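Honest question from a wet-lab person: if I give you the sequences of every part of a complex, can you actually get the arrangement of the whole thing, not just the pieces? Trying it with mine:
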Amino acid sequence: MSVLVVGSVALDSIETPHGQAMDVVGGSATHFSMAAAFFGGVRLVGVVGQDFPERHVRLLSERGVDLGGLVRQDGRSFRWHGRYSADMNSRETISVELNVFEDFQPQVPADWRDSRYVFLANGSPVTQASVLDQMEAPEFVLLDSMNLWIETQRSALLELLPRVDAVLLNDEEARLLTEEDNLVRAGREVLSLGPRLVILKKGEHGALVFGRDHELGVPVPAFPQEEVRDPTGAGDSFAGGLLASMARRGSVDLDAIKQGVVYGTILASFNVEDFGVNRVSRLSMDEIEDRRRRFLQAVHVAL
Amino acid sequence: MSVLVVGSVALDSIETPHGQAMDVVGGSATHFSMAAAFFGGVRLVGVVGQDFPERHVRLLSERGVDLGGLVRQDGRSFRWHGRYSADMNSRETISVELNVFEDFQPQVPADWRDSRYVFLANGSPVTQASVLDQMEAPEFVLLDSMNLWIETQRSALLELLPRVDAVLLNDEEARLLTEEDNLVRAGREVLSLGPRLVILKKGEHGALVFGRDHELGVPVPAFPQEEVRDPTGAGDSFAGGLLASMARRGSVDLDAIKQGVVYGTILASFNVEDFGVNRVSRLSMDEIEDRRRRFLQAVHVAL
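Yes, you can. This is the full assembly:
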């Protein structure tokens, strides 16, 4: 079953204490797709400029990502330049050029509108809503957002939340949205805003899942990763592993969600091992399954 | 099987955004014992002053804690006054009076020297070593420490680490001890300093366990707790649930350790629900088992 993603395809320049990478392929839709492609078909809707290297396009299509929704426009591609702190726990944006992404009005190709699993990657909630309007009857819509939209387009975001199945936020974003310090309470409050599932990402500390039927909150630890060279795209790799593994399984029940969060955790753990998509682009399904098995054995505690 | 604890018995004054509590019973040995007593006998070695209320002593002995090693000396008891930040993630010490604890030379009663499970609560590593010297053949020694000792008695601490079985540190302490930002690498480095087990506490984010046979690191999430009124003593409650449940089981293998970390997690989650030992002192084993079951069901992911 194909997964549809609408988001950015970008050229990233990244500096971390472990080195730097200039003008590498990045963007939310790219990182999502590279992870999701391990589990089945991916349909990508996005935009790049004339400067976007053909080899990056090839990388995605060779992974099996359907680029029938990737538009090439006059102008330059979305570019982001960021630098991580010494402990990798924070980053500053040195420059951001939206370029062709600024006025991007995503058009979902007519024969993709029946896609059942949809990822609305980080973007304006107005644009995200316009994508949702084009879809026929998606079974599971996963929404990502960020501080910028919570601060500048709060009401549009609040209108959108009841229309999606699941929302993905990091701890800081959840606290900003709910003005609640306690993360468990914040997660439950986001749930009360309309989605039936809330997934709070805590980076190296894992994730917390809240749903109508499991208000306790389901904590899933992160894979203990000592090789963190570049965290860029970890959240979108997580989303890719999560949503695409659910689509492959064809289920949206709690068990599928938990298994999905684990696949997301594993994909994110590989993503951070090298710059950009370097690690994921040379990753195999055997490596994913091997790490997943070791992780589940480690976290297993008999009831 | 009895567990021996050597540590502080104190009078705490605590201010949090949820209220305050003045001159309540606290200290590492107290919080540890209150949690550990659910699993079997506890032998407490500590010191209080003439001002220590008899009702606090009764509270411990009614829980089944053997106070044969609690000395009452001339002078005032150890007192600590602290205030938590609005988000409860940091605290400042307003005042600390060591009083009778300052020159405390713990004497383990002769008939307790064969104790098999020992908790060396936070204290000077020199004092902790002197306790260890008095023990005959402990099977499992758990050591707690803190920034102060890492900074001021580093070499004594480094000498002690190979003599204990397990060391308990929070993330900040592990980073300080190893000068390593990545927590997974920090955990492994502490392991290389001599103990055969390292348990890193991450507060609301759970714990990470490292051992010779499971170098991957075993992540155990925290119980998703929305009722945090006073975090004081959470770490010692964690240690109490961990060590005493291992002693009850009579095993120090990885499975016992994982189960122990879960019991520790559950005890700590109750501890923070009210000031001081208020919540744990009215807790039942049924409540512990019920929460533990719900927690393990939530975190369970099929292999």
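Two things worth pointing out. The first strand of chain B starts at residue 3 and ends at 6. The interface with chain A takes residues 86-88, 181-185, 187-188, 202, 204-206, 208, 214, 216-226, 228, 255, 258-259, 262, 293-303 of chain B (CB under 8 Å).
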